[in-house]
Specification:
Rossmann fold, single chain, Single alpha-helices involved in coiled-coils or other helix-helix interfaces, about 15% strand, 17 helices, about 425 residues, 5-stranded parallel beta sheet
Length: about 425
């Protein structure tokens, strides 16, 4: 791993760069596929599925029979684990419900806010080397709690034209209304424009590779919202001598094994901890089934020594990690002062993988520094806030003159007239 000692602040930006391709490298491909799907619909989707996934599908909709087969194929042990995770995720996200907020801003002027579900939701679930059935839980559960009417799930098929059994089981368990065997850019494009078989949605959720990330960003140009521009997974650990090196190393590797473009970072005020963690990483890495993937991610990763906690905190906030683990003698310092992080894990016995699966928090989080301006997925992600107002005769009299003055000064006479006519009508009734 790359070890850096006391990096100068002016070098932080280059030091903390993510190992990702630029949008320019990908954008042309994404735009080409979007244009094809927009004009040719399902034909284009099938063409790209054959090209990228190596399977020609006559029908890309998952049938009830396939779902029943998947339910039977999933082991009881895994079903119990998924049910536990589902229960905790439901508890945490149901607790995020808020009541109507109502206030009388002036006498006779009643204003309130209510949240309503987004009607049509699209979920993208990666397949490939690690089919993320856990992400189905993280997205479909809050969508269901929010009350979304239509929840469409897209996931790439395998070489036999099937979806992972656990993905199908979780989707069925969590209220997904339609499951479609399509992945990559073409899936995002299909949910953006709609095809004969794939519904157009209002908002797209879910992680993916850099092509999917750019596709989601392009979708926003066609009136579709997205959860966030999430890319390859990343994790930063801050640790001092109170941390357990084996635990820290296991957390770093848990993210490194996601993909070759993942990034993990250790920031420490202890050189001894850095050395110990480096040794543990090599030892644990040697026996990992996904060793080759993790090795490439580790090559992009860093062990950074800084002199004190204040410097460490500034560097961490500059990075804005997706996952942030705190294992120090003074955890509260970091917890109270962190400004940019997707999700925070505190103490030696809080592994990042707990948040990935079963603690109850959501694992769909901002990457690539977007933790500085995006939240992770939560119940509100599936809802819209709508405002209402009701004004009585007394209310329009209380605020009417101010509206007239402000409208006139902005040169918007019709705005003023809308108030003036009402005020005159009230006067005439007296």
């Amino acid at each position: 791993m790359n070890k850096i000692y006391n990096p100068k602040q002016e070098n932080w930006a280059s030091l903390l760069e993510r190992p990702t391709k630029t949008v320019d490298d990908i954008e042309a491909t994404v735009k080409e596929i979007f244009a094809a799907v927009q004009s040719k619909g399902d034909d284009a989707v099938q063409q790209y599925t054959s090209q990228f996934d190596g399977i020609a599908l006559g029908n890309n909709l998952v049938s009830n029979a396939e779902i029943e087969l998947a339910i039977a194929a999933v082991s009881d042990e895994l079903k119990e684990a998924i049910q536990l995770a589902k229960s905790n995720i439901e508890k945490f996200h149901a607790a995020q419900k808020t009541n109507r907020v109502s206030v009388e801003t002036a006498e006779g002027v009643q204003c309130w806010q209510e949240k309503r579900p987004i009607q049509k939701i699209g979920l993208y679930i990666p397949g490939g080397t690690a089919p993320l059935f856990s992400t189905v839980l993280m997205l479909a559960i809050p969508a269901t709690i929010a009350g979304c009417k239509e929840v469409v799930l897209c996931s790439p098929p395998d070489k036999n034209g099937n979806l992972n059994h656990a993905i199908l089981y979780a989707a069925n368990l969590c209220g997904v209304t339609k499951i479609i065997k399509v992945g990559g850019i073409q899936a995002i494009a299909a949910m953006t424009f709609g095809t004969t078989t794939i519904p157009k949605v209002y908002k797209i959720f879910g992680p993916g590779n850099q092509y999917v990330t750019v596709a989601k960003q392009l979708a926003t140009q066609f009136g579709v919202a997205i959860d966030m521009p999430a890319g390859p997974s990343e994790l930063l650990v801050v640790a001092d001598d109170s941390a357990v090196p084996a635990f820290v190393a296991s957390d770093l590797l848990s993210q490194a094994e996601h993909g070759t473009d993942s990034q993990v970072i250790l920031v420490s005020t202890s050189k001894a901890m850095i050395e110990a963690v480096e040794q543990e990483v090599q030892s644990q890495l040697a026996v990992l089934p996904r060793k080759k993937i993790a090795e490439k991610a580790i090559a992009n990763s860093k062990l950074i020594f800084v002199e004190n906690a204040a410097i460490a905190l500034d560097l961490i906030n500059a990075y804005g990690p997706e996952h942030f683990i705190v294992c120090t003698e003074n955890d509260d310092f970091y917890v109270d002062n962190i400004e940019n992080a997707g999700s925070v894990f505190i103490g030696n016995y809080t592994p990042e993988s707990a948040g990935d699966y079963a603690s109850g928090t959501n694992h769909t989080l901002p990457t690539n520094g977007y933790a500085k301006n995006y939240s992770g997925v939560n119940l509100d992600s599936f809802m819209k806030s709508m405002t209402f107002q009701k004004i009585s005769e007394r209310g329009i009299q209380a605020i009417g003159q101010s509206i007239e003055i402000m409208a006139e000064k902005e040169g918007l006479q019709a705005h003023k007239n809308a108030v003036t006519l009402r005020l005159k009508a009230i006067e005439n009734e007296k």
